[in-house]
Here is the input.
Amino acid sequence: MLYIMRHGKTDWNARRKIQGRTDVPLNDEGRDMAQKAHDEYLDVHFDICFCSPLIRAKETAEILLKDRNVPIIYDDRLMEMCFGIYEGYENSFHYPDCPINVFFWTPEKYITPVDKGESMDELFGRTGEFLREKVEPLLDEGKDVLIVGHGAMNSSIVCQVKGLPVKDFWSEGIENCKLMKLK
Here is the structure.
């Protein structure tokens, strides 16, 4: 079985700031969310957890799997999408002409930011490679795999596993600390 979870809340989530690769820790609410997820999903079996190396995902995985004998493996391919110059941008939806809003409204039309941004093709390329190399062999062995990551990164995995087009990138909803069963 394959499961994914998005990290708990951060101060940047609360302020509606675009995080991307910026390494923002969980806030107290996010830690509480992860603890509630720990309690809620205690009976769900995981053989292994793959996790983004960003602190908000690491903290979530560690709290979620506390006192369980589940190895956590960090992989850079599970980092959040890089939004370049838009990382740290607050309340983009208050500015209808802000180019980053295209990513949220019509992701199939998203164009990579000029300064160090990541394209949809790059995101799908690295997460697809991760799925093929790490996850699929374990699923073929009958293992239960958990991925703890981020909104956009997790959405790329959902699209690939479910065969969804990029226009449906956000259709499954990626809530903080909610376990999603994919296959």
Notes: Strands lie at 2-6, 48-51, 72-74, 145-149, 180-181. The mean pLDDT is 95. Helices lie at 11-14, 28-40, 55-64, 101-105, 120-140, 151-162.
